[in-house]
Fold:
Amino acid sequence: MIDIRKSFASIPVLKRVSFTLRKGEVHALMGGNGAGKSTLMKILTGVYSKDDGTILVDGQPVEIHGTAAAERAGIAMIFQEFSLVPTLTVAQNIWLKREPRRAGIFIDNAEMVRRSRALLHELGVDIDPETPVGALPVGYMQIVEIAKALSKNARILVMDEPTSSLSEAETEALFELVARLKASGISIVYISHRMAEILAICDRVTVMRDGEAVMTEDCAGLTVDRIVEAMLGAGNAASFEWHDRGPRPEAPPILSLRSLRLPARVNDVSFDLRPGEILGLAGLMGSGRTEIAETIFGRRAPVSGEVIFDGRPVRNQADAIDRGIALVPEDRRKMGLVLDHSVRDNVLLPNLARFTRNFLVQDAEALQTVTRTIRELRIKTDGPDKLARLLSGGNQQKIVLGKWLARDPRLLILDEPTIGVDIGAKSEIVATVRAMADKGMAVLVISSELEELMAISDRILVLHGGRIVQDMNRRDLTSEEELHHAIQGHHIGPSDDVAA
Ligand SMILES: Nc1ncnc2c1ncn2[C@@H]1O[C@H](COP(=O)(O)OP(=O)(O)OP(=O)(O)O)[C@@H](O)[C@H]1O
Structure:
């Protein structure tokens, strides 16, 4: 891609960006939220048209108008999960609308299954092509997507944060698959904010900043510091380090869980959380962490046991919100944003009561809060009136966080708070949460990223087999490995994971 330019509503988003991909390489595309990574890749995959510039495939200029043209040029985007039809089988999904036919009329199911089996075998994955996609774990859906792309002879695959909803084992499986694809000459553009995985599986890295490609280098010998510097600009360090906030003043707990039991996964969970404390909840994916968060927030009713907030049980979600509980959900697009409303509306939505006097919203005061949120969380938007839908993924996540922080909650629950958020914003978020905890807000953080839990928590609980199996003071933890071991150490086998 040479000198690619793109503006939206006359605001330049890509300013003469050049990007090359070699045959059989995994090329990481990195950059802060809103730097232009997705836009560049949407141009490559025919979702957006470029304003200017040239795209060459195998040295030949190509015009990519629309996704069908991208497909013809051998380019495919691998979506994470939502582009497959859950009620159809793996084979039916792979060959959807291109089914092999007998006598040109009847769908040849046996042939479809046979070809799918061969394809999956080639990929080295053990998936039965006759399983309905809806019955597969999330991690496998991406693999089916890859099989589908290869069945269309794709030679360039674009993966946008492929590991963000994968468990550790699924991530490993994906990495093996990436290595295999590479060996067979497939080229991969890999968008991610996770430094460790980039250094582990990529050959080269290109960093974008404010619509420009500012660095392209071989991964070998590259350090995290060098990448961060390129992303943020010289002199803008991002620190993601824990520091001891000292002993918390003795106060009665604001939240107490007593022998909480939920359907299927949570057997008997009890813990206390005090005002001003930041408590991390660790556990394997599927260990029931999100369910516990939703129960505290009044969204789910327990089978037995209690959630006591400020001396009284939480009755339902409205009651939870009323009394100062906030939940930043994991699935922000579905649950956290009204996409067709502006940034301003989204930030104000849960806060309207605060700005309403005599039935009128106090606009100036409200706008001040919105502007502060945009500034403090470094939300990249042309202004408060931009539609949430048009913001980059990481910036959408910041709005969800910002609207609840603006409410000044007494208890803040964060479920995977920094998925898709760049390293600069991560450290901002940690600092903001810490500052609010210093003023007395209680925080419960769920995260699969151990680095994040280690950076933010005062205390960490490990959930396993439906119970809290460890309660650790962050001060006593010396390494991420120790926490990793605590989580994995209790993993005996799949059957152990689901409570009887
Ligand atoms: N359709 C659109 N209309 C207006 N602005 C847009 C549109 N699509 C993207 N933008 C803007 O372009 C900029 C770049 O967005 P893009 O999604 O490419 O960023 P990104 O680097 O992928 O970020 P992230 O890491 O958060 O996913 C953002 O400021 C975004 O608001």
About this structure: The radius of gyration is 24 Å. Confidence is low (pLDDT under 50) at residues 491-500.
